[in-house]
What does this fold into?
Amino acid sequence: MRANMIYGLVVAAFALAALVLEPPLASAEYPVKRLTYMGGVNGGPEWSPDGTIIAFQHRDSGDYDIYTIPAMGGTPTRLTYWPYDQGQPSYSPDGQYIAFTWRTIPFQDDDVYIMPKDAGSYINFTNSGGYDALPAWSPKGDEIAFVSERNAPYWSHIWVQPYPSGAARQITFNLDAQCPSWSPDANYVAFNMWVTQSTYDVDIFTIPAAGGTPVNVTNTPGIKETAPSWSPDGQYIAYERFDPANPNTDIYMCPASGGTPVRLTDNAKMDYWPKWSRDGSRIAFVSARDNAAGELYILCLAENVQPSSLGKIKALFR
It folds into this structure.
């Protein structure tokens, strides 16, 4: 199975000292705000650590480039002007750098690069000469997780490499694994992985960052669940879910240790690639609801929240 780079695939400061979130009776009760109006193809949202900026990837008819936009909305700023595709941005915890994927020859020469937050220069971080993509900077800033085919052509596994330098180590060894996301304490990495070789048998897993046995968090045979994003308190994971019996992709969340999921969007179009804000109040995601190729939206979890029969999500935002 060839790994997909998912190129097609956005907060004001918020006082959350005593907020306890309850999931709503209907996902439509979560306010959704559109962030981009660019047309073309948009994806890969990434919050700056202070919550004021969203980095993302965009293309019209040519290559992908990395842009930023104020998280409250505004005019996008283009960061990269280099040949071929740049995308999948990930901020360093101090907000000063962005790790990203630079694709030159698809699935043959993709590497993880690092540039200053306003671009201008760059370094090749992984420099493997193969397929390295989907970087995720650790919360401590000392490691970057990414996917690579270096030891298994046409199959991707999760690797972790020390920053600023050091030897990368492989932490997954089973079927095709994608989309690493760190737990806030940096002890675990969430990712999606094929359970079998069936197209629709993909679940969300977690694994110790040092390596170990993967744990299946969602465990839903015949359902495709991908692109995990850990909540800032480490208790929950948001992800995209595709059910072939109801062919739309929606955003869900579930306990990080497994359990009953909560559906966060319920739209007639595709909602995908969620990314939790650092303060926990919002989730950025991509949707085809107004542009079939995808625009960026923000799901406002901390506004107009209603009780649910599922009960409180205890102390989700502290």
User: Anything to note?
Assistant: Residues 1-28, 304-318 have pLDDT under 50 and may be disordered.
